[in-house]
Amino acid sequence: MRRRDFIKNTSLGLVATLQIPSVLAKNETILGHNNKRYRINQRWSQADVSQNPVNDCHEMVQDQKGRILLLTNETKNNVLIYDKNGKFLDSWGTEYPGAHGLTLFNENGTDVLFICDNNRHQVIKTTLDGKVLMQLEFPKETGKYEKPEEYIPTETAIAPNGDIYVADGYGKDFIIQYDHKGRYIRHFGGRSDGPEGLLNAHGVCIDARDKNKPSLIVTSRQHNAFKRFDMEGKYLETIALPGAWVCRPVIKGDYLYAAVLQSNSRLWKESGFVTILDQQNRVVSNLAGSEPTYTGDTPDEMYQTIKAFKYPHDVCVDDEENLYVAQWNSGKCYPYKLEIVH
Amino acid sequence: MKKILFLCTFLCCNFALYTQDLFQLAPPMLQYESSFFEKKAMVTIKFAQKNTQIHYTTNGKTPTKNDPIYTRPVVVKNHLTTVKAKVFGEGYLPSEAVEVCFYKQGVAITKVEHTKPHKNYLGSGERTLIDQKGGDMGHSNPTWMGFLQDTLMFTLDLAKPQKVKSLMAHVLISQPTWIFLPEKIEVYFPDPITGTLKLMATKALDATTKVPENATQAVVLDLDNHLKTKRVVVKIYTLTHIPEWHDGKGTLGWFFIDELMVY
Question: Is A5 helix (H, G, I), strand (E, B) or coil?
Answer without folding.
Answer: helix
